[in-house]
Amino acid sequence: MFAEVIVDISHSEADKIFEYSFEDCRIVAGSRVLVPFGGKTIEGIVIRTKDYCDFDEKKVKPIISLLEEIPALTKETLALADFIVKTCYVSRALAFRQFLPVEMRKGRVREQFVKFAELSEDVNIDDVLSSLRKSAVRQRDLILFLEENGKTPLTELNDKFGGAVKALSDKDALKITSEKRLRSPYKDLGGSVRKFALTEKQLFAVNSVENSDKLTTLLFGVTGSGKTEVYLDLIDKTLKKGKTAIMLVPEISLTPQMLKQLRARFGENAAILHSGLSAGERYDEWWRLRTGEAHIAIGARSAVFAPVENVGLIIIDEEHDGSYVSESAPRYNTADIAEFRSRFNNAKLVLGSATPSIESFLKAKNGEYNFIELPDRINQKPLPDIEIADMRKEVRRGNNTPFSSILKDELAKCLEKGNQAILFLNQRGYSKTVVCTECGHVQKCASCDVSLTYHKEDDSLLCHYCGAKYKMISACTECGSPFIKYGGFGTEKIVADLKTLFPSARILRMDRDTTQTKEGHFKILSEFSARKADILVGTQMIAKGHDFPFVTLVGILDADMSLHFSDFRSAERTFQLITQVAGRSGRAGEAGKVVLQTYQPENHVLRQAVNYDYNGFFEREISIRKATAFPPFTKIVRVLVQSENDELALNAVKDLYNELGDIKRERETCFKFFGCMKAPLKKLQGKYRYQILMRIDNGNDDLIDRIFAASNAKNRGKLNVYMEINPNNLT
Ligand code: ADP
Ligand code: ZN
Ligand code: ZN
Predict the structure, then answer these.
(1) Which ligand neighbours the alpha carbon of 228 most closely?
(2) In angstroms, what is the C-alpha Rg of the chain?
(3) Ligand 1 pocket test target in 193, 198, 227, 229 with most atoms within 8 Å of CB
(4) Segment 567-612, tens digit of pLDDT
């Protein structure tokens, strides 16, 4: 037999189908195998088997071995890989990598086995006992122990009985077996989970998803409207039909909370997949899904590739969230992958959000999606009142702290009542920048065109783009002046200031720096949830989805931050972020309050967010997008050219611009250049960056294919060139 194999090498020269011969009849499409390739042994994936060969049969080499008996890839994932290759412009090897745990690919992790011992049935224990010498007390004890306890892990017996284990084993009195041990993450999620009878509205939502003739439903439900219960009920119904479900949340930090709910309902039927797990855990959870032992996959973005078959339901919670778009190759959009799987399996796809993305809401309005609204919080609880604090006035009054007087007052009241507060600031570290007061020099990263952030905890300057760490300076590196000033606040500084303002308050901080350890997110969130702290200060990881019933105050310290980004989604992002963070307040018991600090209180996006006017926001935003011909009415294409050699990059980007100009001239009306220029981040990790920004009208994907081909042809040697479509991040 012959097999068509894709080898696990991602560069384009190896992106071909190679043929090998084999005899092992366990090898099928989807199997992982080892093959000889260019003098080396390489992993590969069989995409097709056949009984003839397209090449000279004598030159075809045999497959070395089969890696796993169960094919790692299914028919569906093989088809999905093709889809990724076509839509994300990546090699097949790179597409396949999305489906497999990294460590499994490199053979660095295997199943874990534990050895057990019990008394052998083949020997008469009384004979063994009587044959023992009087002094062999421990062997005698071991026999009695095993008679009483039966099968016991070998390590435990070795600890208890030492050499006696080997002695008895030598007499063939023990039967040693080996059993697979599952490494399962989040063993103790603590607390209890309440199950509610669905409200009429929730029930309506469930039925609407089930009965709609459309595969995709947009569930537009305000924060605290009980979307989670709707998801759980839908999953329940899916399992009862013998199908599997995929549940996606936007942040790893949200997975334990959802896993807890899923385990409470469905026990071990839920498996979790995310990059924060240990290699062994991820491997075991992956196989539980692949073998059909678990039927529900839960995780962040990458769990959309979960190896489940017969999918009946895919849920994307907080579907608008930017984290659902991958920023490294393959640059996929999770919803596109989910839509592919939904079509392939005829499965329902539910997109849930309190602030749907402009694209999804438009599709719902146009009738492409089934549309359901949950306009009220559970028990008619009001949405929290959002008060704007005008920071310009604060500065005029001489208040240069990160806290407005309104926020300080509200914090004091909240603490007094024994309630909890959340303060949100999307900037970690102590100060955003470090500036010399004499010459104005800002400390920058040596390899990036980025100012460094001061981290007081380890007294260092960090580059938030490449991770480089520098010693804190005692004098300006330009002029030697010792007068150094901090510019802007980070979460560390907020905590420090809070400690002076409210000395007895217990404060937790959650940002990338405090969540590096295993299950780090989970520890902080559980502590806050258990009311072991009064204030939680954090970056966007605390903005989404969390359900803390005792939080009655939310402070948004700098609502303007995301308005400054120069991309077409900045208004949308700002509206979403404010609604999400505000939504953490007043979810149970007492009514909630939100203080929103801004330097531009008259900004229309902030105004609409304060009034929870999503519809008004959508109408305004969609008319702007239409008038300016931005997505979803067109596609924005960016080609980024990077190199350590500035001149090389500059020449390449100019050449490419000329080549693309030829394509444009053929189709002037649907192709617009915004220019060819330095990227907003001119240098990153030692590489100089240039970009070409374009706009292509919908329905001209052939142009995008050609832009890709022209760019990819330059992606060689010391040049790194790649294309992005509707990028989320224009740095
Ligand atoms: P969302 O995901 O829409 O923000 P959640 O699903 O977290 O909202 O629900 C908000 C709160 O309402 C939670 O504390 C949840 O336990 C509670 N809840 C949900 N459904 C019901 C119900 N049918 N009856 C009572 N309480 C409910
Ligand atoms: Zn200086
Ligand atoms: Zn850097």
Answers:
(1) 1
(2) 30
(3) 229
(4) 788 899 999 999 999 999 988 878 899 999 999 999 999 999 999 9
- Can the peptide bond before residue 632 be classed as cis, meaning omega within 30 degrees of 0? yes
Nearest to 680 by CA among 693, 668, 667: 693
Q: How many Cα atoms sit within 13 Å of 670 on the Cβ side?
A: 15
Per-residue pLDDT for 697 more than 90?
Answer: yes
Q: How far is the CA of 463 from the centre of ligand 2 (A)?
A: 20
- For ligand 1, atom 9, name the residue with the nearest CA: 226
Nearest to 553 by CA among 402, 379, 385: 385
Please provide the average confidence, as pLDDT, over all residues in the chain.
92
- Let me know: does 537 contact 494? Beta carbons within 8 Å: yes
Ligand 1 geometric centre to CA of 229 (Å):
7
Reduced 3-state DSSP string for 213-238? CCCEEEEEECCCCCHHHHHHHHHHHH
Q: Give the sign of the dihedral formed by CA 711, CA 716, CA 718, CA 723.
A: positive
Cα–Cα dist 471/476, whole Å: 13
Q: How confident is the model at residue 71 (pLDDT cuts 50, 70, 90)?
A: very high
What separation in Å is there between the alpha carbon of 293 and the centre of ligand 2? 63
pLDDT band (50, 70, 90) for residue 566? low
pLDDT for position 120: 86
> Closest by alpha carbon to 380, among 198, 232, 194, 224?
224
pLDDT computed for residue 244 by the predictor = 98
pLDDT at position 99, please? 94
Distance, in Å, from the CA atom of 327 to the CA atom of 324, rounded to the nearest integer, reads 9
* pLDDT tens digits along 350-392: 999 999 999 999 999 999 999 999 999 998 888 999 999 999 9
Instruction: Specify the DSSP class assigned to residue 50.
Output: E
**Can you give the pLDDT at residue 565?**
63
Residue percentage of the chain with pLDDT more than 70 = 99
List Cβ neighbours of 57 (8 Å cut-off, separation of 6 or more).
Answer: 21
Task: Tell me how many helices (H) and strands (E) the chain has.
Answer: 22, 31
Contact 415, 624 (CB under 8 A): no
Cβ of 225 below 6 Å from ligand 1:
yes
Residue 707: burial class (beta carbons within 10 Å; 0-12, 13-18, 19+): buried
pTM of the predicted structure, to 2 decimals: 0.89
Average pLDDT (329-343) is 96
How distant, in Å, are the alpha carbons of 39, 365, 434, 572, 625 from that of 619? 61, 11, 42, 12, 10
- CA-to-CA separations, 298 to 33, 252, 262, 292, 308, in angstroms, rounded: 28, 10, 9, 14, 11
Grouping H, G, I as helix, E, B as strand and the rest as coil, residue 588 is coil
The ligand that comes nearest to the alpha carbon of residue 686 is 3
CB neighbours of residue 258 within 10 Å: 22
Handedness of CA 9, 10, 11, 15 (dihedral sign): positive
Tokens 């224009």 -> residue: 730
- In one letter, which amino acid is 404? S
How would you class 282 by CB atoms within 10 Å of its CB: exposed for 0-12, middle for 13-18, buried for 19 or more? buried
What Cα–Cα distance (Å) separates residue 25 from each residue in 2, 31, 46, 288, 581? Answer: 11, 11, 13, 24, 56
Contact indicator for 453, 461 with CB cutoff of 8 Å: yes
Token pair of 703 as six digits: 């142009």
Q: What is the mean pLDDT of residues 534-561?
A: 91
